[in-house]
Amino acid sequence: MIKKNDIVTLTIEDFGKDGEGIGKYDGFTVFVKDTVIGDTIQARMIKLKKNYGYGRLMEVLTSSGYRVPARCPAARPCGGCQLQFLSYDRQLAFKQEKVRGNLERIGGVQFTAPKESGSENALMEPIIGMENPWHYRNKEQFPIGWSRDGRRIAGFYAGHTHSLVEIKDCPIGTEENQKILDIVLKHMERYDILPYDEGTGKGLVRHVLIRKGFYTGEIMVCLVLNGKKLPAQTGLIHQLTAVPNMTSIVLNLNREKGNRILGDQVILLWGKPYIRDTIGNLTFRISPLSFFQVNPIQTQKLYAKALEYASLTGNETVWDLYCGTGTISLFLARKARKVYGVEIIPSAVRDAELNARENGISNVVFKAGKAEEVFPEECGKEGARADVVVVDPPRKGCEQTVLDTIVSMKPDRVVYVSCDSATLARDVKYLSDKGYEVRKVCPVDMFPQSVHVETVVLLSNNFSKAKDYV
Q1: What is the C-alpha separation between 123 and 135, in angstroms, rounded?
Q2: Are residues 409 and 433 in contact, defined by beta-carbon separation less than 8 angstroms?
Q3: What's the predicted TM-score (pTM) here?
Q4: Which of 193, 308, 367, 392 could link 188 by a cystine bridge, Cβ 3.0 to 4.6 Å?
């Protein structure tokens, strides 16, 4: 019988939902991260359940043909890039199957082509990947802490822990990150500024948030503090402004205990309180608290697919829920009669309104509040209509009242943009049971090297006499 700390030899035969390799030991299922299908490995058993367990990779005895060298020296301990050892073409195949599997199993979507045929039903389009799946992130949030030898360090937390792994030059981040972090850490050392300690609630610097406009080159540095001011901040500003394209330096104040990264208060230290970037031929301002897709190259492809699925003729009233800084809303507004965007973060709504004005778009209205409250209230008013509803919710998916309002308004088309295919599938099942039918599905790889995948789904209602829209 297998026991904890046993060393077992496994051949990896499949992937779990979080990218772990799956092997069998005398019929007992074992999950091992950092392995790929086709590897033969040795693993130490670290956790046992009744019917399955978890192992830690000790040695790769025979490498799979899909295994590639990791670019990042911290790839194994860091919790960010779960698929960095897997060739990119196989990453795409894994994500396509993940989306398909969730929609079939949870959502009840019928894909008629047999899986073993290698083809897809017309419902499922091929995943949209990247030509260069590295250095794509326009935003990274680096926790600040202590190394074991007493140095101030920046990095990321190891998977499922709050143990800090030192990383400054992340291969999916921007090249300026390392220089900026070196400046901040040296300043902290010089003036004996302490990193924040989650256990005691003491210390000053919690995170360094860095954002970059990929097409404008503009850079923002946001220092998240457990306090109101950074010692000798004038000297730090002077050093940071020497970084080419530095545009905005701000403080974010977060004095609450817990793992929430950003507080609500932002103080401008230098430059503008925002940076700008473009998607297609639209320009957007991005402030520290605003949601903006982290992969600008793939964002343009994602929004183009959403716009294609919306199939607008210029006569539609469109609701864009969870609209952030209005990115999808403005793309839709150029093709629709009227667009209403709903977003919970007030600063994002202000940015959305400014984005509309600066892009010369006047047929869009943004409303601040929870989608599950604003959308039902507005749609309950006399004369309200919704021809197309676009939703781009957080990972937990749509609230029940949002789905119920969609059903009651009977829009011809629902375009669902999702960062979690499991909650997407749950919501698709609900809408399908209420008279909607899935017409198209397209995964988009917004997060290469990780297990996450964005998905766009088109649903149309069966009350409409319209046929397929795309």
Answers
A1: 32
A2: no
A3: 0.90
A4: 193
Identify the CA nearest to 306 among candidates 407, 424, 393, 391.
391
Residue that is written with structure tokens 């499949």 in the block: 14
What are residue 457's phi and psi, to 5 degrees? -125, 135
What angle is formed at CA 44 by the lines to CA 43 and CA 48, rounded to 5 degrees? 110
Listing from the earlier edge strand, what are the strands of the sheet with 246-253?
164-166, 152-157, 139-146, 205-212, 219-225, 246-253, 265-271
Two tokens, residue 87: 């060739």
Strand order in the sheet with 436-444: 364-368, 338-343, 317-321, 388-391, 413-418, 454-461, 436-444
Question: So what's the pLDDT on residue 463?
Answer: 61
Backbone phi, then psi, for 346, in 5-degree steps?
Answer: -55, -40
Average pLDDT for the chain: 92
The one-letter amino acid code at 201 reads: G
Of the listed 170, 379, 419, 442, which one is catalytic? 419
Q: Distance between CA atoms of 341 and 280, rounded to whole angstroms?
A: 20
For residue 467 the two structure tokens come to 């046929």
The radius of gyration computed from the CA coordinates of the chain, to the nearest angstrom, equals 24
What local confidence, expressed as pLDDT, does residue 113 receive? 55
Beta strands in 274-420 (DSSP E): 275-279, 282-286, 317-321, 338-343, 364-368, 388-391, 413-418
443's CB contacts (< 8 A; 6+ apart) are 95, 96, 99, 127, 128, 421, 453, 454, 455
